[in-house]
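Q: For a teaching handout, I want to show students what a protein-ligand complex looks like in token form. Below are the inputs, and the small molecule is ANZ. Please produce the holo structure.
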Amino acid sequence: MTFELSEKYDASAIEGKWQRVWEERKTFKAPDPDKDPLKRPKYYCLCMFPYPSGAIHMGHLRNYSIGDIISRYKRMKGFNVMQPVGWDAFGLPAENAAIQRGVHPKEWTLQNIAQMKSEFKKMGIAYDWDREVTTCLPEYYKWEQLFFTKFFKKGLAYKKVGQNNWCENCQTVLANEQVQDGKCWRCDGPVIIKELSQWYFKITVYADQLLEDHKYLKGQWSDRVLDMQKHWIGQSEGARIQFPVEGHDGIAAIEVFTTRPDTLMGVTFVTIAALHPAAEGLSVAEGSGTALRDLRIEMQGRAKDFEATTKKGFFTGSFAIHPLTKQKVPIWVGDFVVMDYGTGAVMGVPAHDQRDFEFATAYKLPIIQVIAPESGPAATVSEAYVEGGTLINSGEFNGLDNEKAKTKIGEKLEAAKLGVRTIQYRLRDWGISRQRYWGAPVPVIYCDKCGVVLVPDKDLPVELPGDVVFKVGGNPLNGHESFVNVACPNCKGKARRETDTMDTFVESSWYQARYTDPQNDKAAFAKSKADQWLPVDCYIGGVEHACMHLLYSRFFHKVLRDWGYLSGPEPFKRLLSQGMVIKDGAKMSKSKGNVVTPQSIIDHYGVDTGRLFSLFAAPPEKDLEWNEKGVEGCHRFILRVWRLFYQFKDDMKAPMAAGAAADLDPKLVAIRRKTHWMIKKVADDIEESKFNTAISAAMELVNEVYGLLTDADKAFAAPGGQFVIQEALKSLILCLSPYTPHLCEELWAAMGNQTLVAEAAFPAHDPSLLASDTFLLVIQVNGKVREKIELPKGLSKEEIQKRVMESPKLQSFIAGKTLKQFVYVPERIANVVMG
Ligand code: ANZ
Ligand code: ZN
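A: Here is the structure, written as tokens, with ANZ included.
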């Protein structure tokens, strides 16, 4: 086959051509490791799958280019790489489109998928398309419903009436993780508390493991994500302490949760949440009933997680008995106490807790210091002292170190049955009910006689009916008679079907396992397949998922492992959290009007330029600032590579043996050194996810080769020159191919290769060529850089000083002056101090 390289770089022709070749040859189909004819080690590379919103944006191009460079590089390094793709296809936007435009959510979603799929293919990502999954199809969600029934049977799914976050815009419940700064994660709308009966997954059972198993992720996940999770799980060691209530028949005691039992003797009041079940009964003071109603309304309007900046409250008129001193302490209601944490009640220790301090100051409540710093107690307290110290004003505990006092006071309370030491988590159970249509139905039936009945396995999936009427507010499934009215699977009597659907984060909690066995119609996946591929070796996605998807999927993995469906402690070995794509300092978004679409880049420059830019302009974890100049710069680099190759195209065709490299001109030796330096640098940098500096190395090599081209002596015509250029350009193509795969396939083929560059091996560098026997010395005179000279290694300091002082360019700076000092930083800088 003869192949003529055209003089002009025609991105669109080249890209279409190679995409077709990859597709026809199924180049990126990953055989299961036990069937791999090449017996390569497996490498599972996964990018968080996209929501099919309709069009790809720059964030996609960046995210998927990162996954692709790792995948292509690992393949060249001899791994059996699996890089799958699919669609996180349930969710609200589809339903909103239905309401606004009258298209059915399923139709809207499948159309978007088709559209995005064709755009994805234009990015040239090395996907194994045979493993594609689409979560809104019954073949997928059937297994999720089966998991639900299993969760229920094992006591890990339950329904309870609780206070829920409710987004007024989306008209649905949100999980705690989906409320950010008191707002909805999706629409930024206000979130209020609403009392509803909801389904929950007991993620709290795994709270300790989710924290403990961070030990497997340390160093492989960023500290930032681990810290966010740690904070979200929020493990606090402390005690639950009973404060008996005086004179109320129905309310025996208020139980508080504290992390500081050592401060017990400094309690001057007890504060309960407005939504505390005892608040009404305890509010007996005049006006307190009204105050409670007002505060409750105010609290209902706040998301559960809202941190009060005010310290507002009122005295209930009731008193509690201090468990140790037996003194009366007033019971208050305060807006800084939330019902959703601990017991919804706190013991007020104003001297040592800042919120209590502000509350006590506002309402003139007494302040008793019980922990003294080394310098002794303060004369007046102007803020809470929250550090450790020695106990004072604490009777029998005086003089104890406060850490010891925690144990002593804890023991005393436990003996008196007025307290228990506990570990409290901030993490709540995961509320998975959504009052929306476009999700996987919860497979449950309610029967008056039998109660909650699971849909039997043989009746799964519970398919979403197609013929529903969409309207603003409310779940359209409620109005669907034949969906709702069913026979009880148990007694065959009249029963009602659950209309809640599952949070879409349930689908994304196990898709990484489904990819290992995507067409299985007997089970969600076979353990033997999942075990071959999992854990995911590198997972790539946005940091915004730290406390949502990345927590839920770790939980799911542990549950499935405990049931024997999966192995190993964690689903994702390494995590790469990429930054956002911004333009003019703001996130690219329609509302800001600063969107550049990948399609426009593809049309104008070709996707290789877009890929190169998105990897070159910033390291992956940083935000990427989009700028047209940078894009043009990347495009020019591609053109430079093309021209270089075109110029030498005939030299490239008959590969020469390394023997040709004997007795080379020093300039050619330098090119060889640069080539091998680049190979090493690109490999090392990709391994460390420094994709941007790897490209710089390739650019340096290209510059150096161009430098010689302009030389009058025509270095490449010298003996061995053809070998050196072959080596340089071949290495360049191989190293760049994970970045600009289409360009490199074309050049690779032009070299006469019959195989694909995508299937070539990554080049190895020759360490003996890297070592240089000279170094570049920077010379300063009185601190100013005046000259750079190349010197052989191994000279004495005296010899170096002699050569520096003799260097011609320096003479004008030192003439007529005397040398005061010669400062030498070995093999780097010499500073000549003249006076
Ligand atoms: C008395 C005390 C004294 C406290 C002291 C702290 C310092 P973390 O670390 O987050 O677990 N608290 C408990 N339940 C609460 C609720 N439902 N709403 C608001 N605040 C609550 O915090 C535990 C501390 O937060 C608890 O320890 C309690 O105040 C408060 F010198 O009890 B502490
Ligand atoms: Zn029944």
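A: Two things your students might notice: Residues 447, 449-450, 453, 488, 490-491, 493, 495 surround zinc ion (ligand 2) (CB under 6 Å). The radius of gyration is 34 Å.
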